Structure formats: structure tokens, C-alpha cells
Amino acid sequence: MNIQPTYSSLDYPGKMALVLFTPGCNLRCKYCHNPQLLKNQELTKWDIEEIEEEVENNMDFIDAIVLSGGEPLLHVDVIKNFIKQAKQNDLLVKLDTNGLHPEETKEILKDLDYVAMDIKAPLNKYYKISDMYPNNVEELITETIDIIMDNNVYLECRTTYVPKLLDPEDINELTRNLRCDRYTLQQFRNRVTLDASLSTYEEPNPEFLREILENLECQIPEIRLKSRQFGNQLIKKSN
Ligand code: SF4
Known about the structure:
The chain has helices at residues 45-58, 76-88, 102-108, 137-150, 168-176, 206-214, and strands at residues 4-12, 15-21, 64-68, 92-97, 114-118, 154-161, 182-187, 222-227, 231-237. By secondary structure, the chain is α/β, with parallel strands linked by helices. It has one domain (4-237): TIM Barrel, CATH 3.20.20. β3, α2 and β4 form a beta-alpha-beta unit. The longest helix is centred in the N-terminal third of the chain and has 14 residues, at 45-58. The chain is globular and about 45 Å long. Iron/sulfur cluster is lined by residues 25, 27-29, 32, 34, 69-71, 98, 118.
């Protein structure tokens, strides 16, 4: 099967979800921990039928489906089948995306309950993270955020903090005018990385990451930190 279904209680906050990892991505983040998913394979009607059967058989155990990858919006016509099935059965739908597909986001937005979008670096500094990216990253991501926020769909933005690739000022810069409901800084993990040289980078200390978040100059209502040592921690929340 070209879609890897996995059950998780961590990918949709507070819910048990079936996570569908679809193949293909138009970025090549040096730290990508799913490099096996980067090859864009076509999804067949067998893939669709197998997933629909998986959802059908496990309907009683799950609250949500999570469309993840890779970049699920590269297969927007296929994921529409899963969204339709989920909605017919009162399941929640979360999309994990790199934010580079505003038109496809618009096509499925009305059925989304939660979007988690990666903001890899300040929008004019994607060269720090990926050797491949569209030259209008800033325009695409800004448009995607506006579409989601203007339609009141819950938006979490996330950044993986990789030492040597990013610095604290990058996090300050990228969050300063960011529109979203929640921002999560994720600790870089060095176990599996697309660029093998990153496996020699140390995982950043959670205390150092916490300090970055405590000093942010932004208006985002909820700020969180995700680390191996402490899990998903609330750092700041405004009423
Ligand atoms: S956006 Fe980056 S981290 Fe995510 S799948 Fe694509 S290359 Fe990997």
C-alpha cells in the first residue's frame, strides 16, 4: 500500500486518530524524518479502497482522521474520498501540510476541523532548511494562512528547531506577525534525517527552547514546546 495508516493518540490533540501518511513532497527538509515518503508515487484505486476499509473496520475506535505525509495536498483528489467518508461518519478531520498549496487547501477547507502547518524558517529564509522549495514560498504560505484563519478553522503552526540551521532570532522573526491559534516549537531529533550529516547534530536542550519561547514578541494565543524529555508542554496561553 502506498499510504501508511497508523493509529495515534498524539497527532490530533485529545483524540484517537487514524493517521494517513501519503507519499511525495515538494520540499526536501534536511531534517525530514520521513525520507521514505518523499518519492511521489501515484495512489491507485486499491490504495483508496484499502484505506476506506481500514476506516470502516475501526470506526468505533477512532475520533478523527489525520491527513499527513509527505504532503497530502499533492493528492487532493484522493484525500477528498477519505474526507467524505470521515464526515459521513462524524469523524473529525485534521490536515498536516507544508502550507505551499493554497488552492488545494481551499478545495477541502469546509470539511477541515484542524490544520497543522509547518513554518520551516522565516519565510524569506527557506534556503536554511531545504535545498528545494518554490521561489514564492512567502506568497503561498501567507495566502494559505489567510484562507484558513479567515474561515475560522483552527490553525496550529509548527517549527522544528535544528541547531546550526536556525537560531533564536529566526523563531522570533517568523512568529512576530504570524496569524494562528497555536504555535509549537518542536525539538529536532537526530535519529532519522534526510541529510545524513544532521545525525551528528545534538538535539537542542529543552530549557534552551523554552527560553526562546518565553522571549517571543508575538500575539499568538497559545505557545507550546514539544520535546522528547517532556512531551507536549504548554508554555504560554492568553485568555
Ligand atoms: S515538508 Fe519537509 S519534513 Fe515534511 S515531508 Fe516534506 S520534506 Fe519531509
